[in-house]
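To the structural biology subgroup,

Please find below the input and predicted structure for Nitroreductase, which we are adding to the shared reference set this quarter. The sequence is reproduced verbatim from the submission form. If anyone notices a discrepancy with their own records, reply to this email rather than editing the shared folder directly, so we keep one authoritative version.
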Amino acid sequence: MLEKHKHISFPPKTDFPIFQVDDEKCIGCGRCVNSCPIQLLMLDSDKKARPNERYDHFRCICCQNCAASCPNDAITIQGDYRVHEGFWKNDNLFEGGKTFPDPLYSRNGAKYEDYEDQLTETEKVIYNRRSIRLYKKKRVPKELVHRIIEAGRFAPSAGNNQPWKFVAITNPDVIEEIDQICKKRVRLFPQMLMPHPWVDKQVPGDKNAKPKKWQKTLHYLLSRKTPGDVDQRVLGGINTISSDPEYRTFFKAPALIILAKDVRGIGSPDLDLGICGQNMVLAAHSLGLGTCWVSLIKGLTWDHRYVRKVLGLEYPFKILTSLTLGYPAGQVDNIVARERQRVNWIE
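Predicted structure (tokenized):
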């Protein structure tokens, strides 16, 4: 019992993926730096990509967007995220490391290019789609935004309840206003749960700093109720947004779609909105647009007046998540490796 609850705050026996760059291939474009969701990278004096000081505190989550967005295939991510003991233990949940897509069940290491022509267009979008954080300063036509929302409208939902409402925002001033509100709201979270020398991105502080006793107690209590909000990888991402005045929650995307749920929805309206949003994501990428899920939009729910007056959302609707939307700046959608299937076959 005690073993299960050890190391709630920043478990010490953790293996993180390691960022590696081929200096001969790196051209110093900075796309990897800008696409990292936790802002762990920088360009050194020789214009080569390197981990920055934040890397000592938060480490790589292995999303591999840096590798996907690199125009010269200069980046590789070695290793996987594995926790060996305590509450967050996961090294018993995986078999081997990550692998590239194998939809045809070949199990022989075939390259994606070898079987791509055998896949449906839907499969191709699923395997190539990446979270986009690099956008062109180009307006997304209202007709395309409507088309993407329409794909969401026809998602399945429990009891055909359709417990969703959308707020589509293309006004850059409003997106920036929401961005600043969210940054302010989430600032409290790392201050409550992280060692204070880590809270400022510009001065990372002592990498050996430890959470205070009251922070560990709070972390433990929150882990019982909402473990997904206090995972050490989540805290790094939240701290990036809240501590860096130059970083934008919504990546300066030209459009933002907020997904709100009817809190009275049948079954699990959160699940229904996830299905709805994924329809929208796949539709957007099939149209040459890019998206990124940003659930930190929930920080806006504390400002009831703004939500009601500006966004036009009232009971029974409550903000659940959001999607940034825009034209990708360069190639980002790409094939990456993911953890192996966890499936029990019963035949």
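Summary notes: Residues 142-170+254-326 form a domain with the NADH Oxidase fold (CATH 3.40.109.10). The mean pLDDT is 91.

Regards,
Lab coordination
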